[in-house]
Amino acid sequence: MAITQIKIVQDYIRMCTDGWEQGWHERNGGNVTYRMRPEEVEQCRPFFSAPGEWNPMGVTGANLAGEYFLTTGSGKYFRNIALDPLHSIGIVEINAAGDAWRIVWGLAGGAKPTSEFPSHYMNHCVRAAATGGAYRVIYHAHPANLIAMTYVLPLTARDFTRALWQSATECPVVFPGGVGVVPWMVPGGAEIALATSELMKEFDAAVWAHHGLFCSGPDFDTTFGLMHTIEKSAQIWVLAQSASGGKLRQTIRDDELRAIAREFGVTLNEKFLDP
């Protein structure tokens, strides 16, 4: 048996491949991390190599100290993950202080976890705390239509949430809390990691201006579905704005958004609605 025959590794690779096929991962763009369950770690442990050196992250999250994460590699291409997982992805262990990682499997040939691992780790810490440990996936991709919106709309959670909710009827059901927005920052460092994690205390998804989208969820299907839904709504928004010259004839009104929420038993974030 190979580690790639273990279900959680197969499911992780499938999500990466699905994102590539959507066109969200040009070159080495985007990254996925998954916080492993103890039983999944034990399934994979026979394949672990001698652990590497501890590498400081520049951020600290004590609540997930000692945990293990599946991660994509820095500079690695999503199109190659299914073909060469040993060099494209890996499993890292977090130290007892929650401020450093070391490789225990994969990322062969001197590779490292995604350069945005500090952002992922801080978002994991925040979403795990906010959901009682239920959320395990952080997914970052470059969906083109959503990125295009960041050049047109004001960079506020209210403007983006309203535009997305009003562009597709399912959106208030899929992300009733709305989406956060991070202004443009240099990716990969502690500053953007902390800014994103602050938003993730409230939201399941955060837009990175002129860059992409971060989504979180309890499993791969839910998290991929959130990314897919937001990008589909963004595509509809872009198409409608282009076709109308920015002058829409009608949209989903606030009372209709509330009616959707009542019908599906979700609670909308009222700060994004007009009285």
Structural commentary:
Helix 8 (190-200) links the parallel strand 7 (180-182) and strand 8. It contains ten helices and nine strands. By secondary structure, it is an alpha+beta fold. Helix 4 (117-130) packs parallel to helix 8 and helix 6 (157-167) packs across helix 9. It has helices spanning 7-21, 38-44, 85-88, 117-130, 144-149, 157-167, 171-174, 190-200, 220-244, 254-264; strands at residues 31-35, 55-56, 68-72, 89-94, 100-106, 137-141, 180-182, 205-208, 212-217. Strands 2-5-4-3-1-6-9-8-7 form a nine-stranded mixed beta sheet, with helices on both faces. It is elongated and about 60 Å long. The termini are far apart. The longest helix has 25 residues, at 220-244.
Task: Please provide the ordered H/E string of secondary-structure elements.
Answer: HEHEEHEEHEHHHEHEEHH
* Major β-sheet annotation: 9 strands, mixed
List low-pLDDT spans: none
**How are the strands ordered across the major sheet?**
2-5-4-3-1-6-9-8-7
Q: Look at the structure and give the mean pLDDT.
A: 96
**What is the number of helical segments per DSSP (H or I, 4+ residues)?**
10
- Structural class label: alpha+beta
The whole-angstrom Rg is 19 Å
What is the terminal separation in angstroms? 59 Å
Q: Compute the number of strand runs.
A: 9
Instruction: Specify the helix fraction band.
Output: 25-40%
Shape descriptor reads: elongated
Strand content: 15-25%
What's the quaternary structure here?
single chain
